[in-house]
């Protein structure tokens, strides 16, 4: 008889545990805690075996939930950023661009010193010099540090803003870009000298001034931006807004692409005149 009672108690405990587990899963669904839902049983078993205090058990599963939320958030931000693939700091040849301070770039990649102030970063240099690669690598690092970034060719974004203007929706379209802490405009100089294009670009620059940051890559120095903006007054106003709170980086180096092509043509057995780039940039 005592054995039967013990068996009955075990059965009742098993049923109770099953019901509690099902109830807990429903509660965790309601609270939107998917990581805890997956992991709680595993850590509860470990907690029982090792005699954890209740506080340690709760802190452990809460830490895993927070870590999983951070991972999912980073994944979402990477998808929306539209960064070119393979453009990282590891694949960027800092030795080939000696005027770039790696320490300064890493500080910029943290974001705290400039994104919160709505400051800008401007990268100048000839085609193939690594501007787009560096911009994308900075964008990737910023996303990993919790910031939201959008990478786009300037011409593509300008066309979208022109369409929004035709649909009387330009202000709303520019406001939607506010959700990004950093807007990377690649190849500014390729915008055609057209009043409609450059006016929406100017409105974007003005709207983000001292509020949200921009990273711009350009082949042409400021002195040649009259090729982008048809109106000299608009050119000066755009430059003034961009440089007011800005870090400006000159990347006047030989094209990665040209240098790589010359080294291939030179063939094996002849030492290159420059360090071989780790990847073709821009």
Tally of individual helices: 10
Instruction: Label the structural class.
Output: alpha/beta
- Name the poorly predicted regions: 269-282
SSE arrangement, N to C: HHHHEHEHHEHEHEH
Report on this model:
With 282 residues, the protein is an alpha/beta fold. 55% of the residues lie in helices and 9% in strands. It has ten helices and five strands, in the order ααααβαβααβαβαβα. Strands 2-3-4-1-5 form a five-stranded parallel sheet. Helix 8 links the parallel strand 3 (182-186) and strand 4. This is AAA+ ATPase domain-containing protein.
Quick rundown:
By secondary structure, this protein is of the alpha/beta class. The protein contains ten helices and five strands.
Strand and helix layout:
Blueprint lengths: L1 H30 L2 H17 L3 H28 L20 H9 L9 E5 L6 H14 L4 E5 H13 L3 H7 L5 E5 L8 H14 L4 E6 L13 H12 L2 E5 L5 H11 L16
Parallel strand pairs: 1-4, 1-5, 2-3, 3-4
Helix pairs in contact: 1-2, 2-3, 3-5, 4-5, 6-7, 6-8, 8-9
Summary keywords:
single chain; 282 residues; alpha/beta; five-stranded parallel β-sheet; 10 helices; 5 strands
């Amino acid at each position: 008889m005592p054995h039967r009672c013990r068996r009955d108690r075990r059965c009742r405990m098993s049923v109770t545990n099953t019901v509690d587990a099902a109830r807990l899963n429903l509660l965790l669904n309601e609270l939107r805690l998917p990581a805890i839902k997956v992991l709680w049983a595993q850590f509860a078993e470990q907690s029982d075996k090792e005699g954890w205090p209740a506080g340690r058990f709760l802190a452990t599963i809460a830490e895993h939930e927070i870590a999983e939320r951070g991972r999912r958030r980073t994944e979402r931000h990477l998808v929306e950023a539209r960064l070119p693939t393979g453009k990282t700091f590891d694949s960027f040849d800092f030795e080939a661009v000696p005027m770039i301070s790696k320490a300064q770039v890493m500080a910029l990649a943290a974001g705290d010193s400039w994104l919160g102030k709505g400051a800008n970063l401007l990268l100048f240099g000839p085609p193939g010099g690594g501007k787009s690669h560096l911009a994308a690598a900075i964008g990737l690092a910023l996303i990993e540090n919790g910031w939201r970034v959008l990478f786009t060719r300037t011409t593509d974004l300008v066309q979208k803003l022109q369409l929004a203007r035709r649909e009387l929706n330009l202000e709303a379209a520019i406001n939607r870009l506010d959700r990004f802490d950093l807007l990377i405009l690649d190849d500014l100089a390729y915008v055609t000298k057209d009043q409609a294009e450059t006016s929406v670009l100017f409105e974007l620059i003005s709207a983000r001034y001292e509020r949200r940051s921009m990273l711009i890559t350009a082949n042409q120095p400021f002195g040649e931006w009259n090729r982008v903006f048809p109106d000299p007054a608009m050119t000066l106003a755009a430059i003034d807004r961009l440089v007011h709170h800005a870090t400006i980086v000159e990347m006047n180096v030989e094209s990665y692409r040209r240098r790589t092509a010359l080294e291939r043509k030179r063939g094996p057995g002849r030492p290159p005149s420059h360090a071989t780039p780790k990847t073709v940039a821009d």
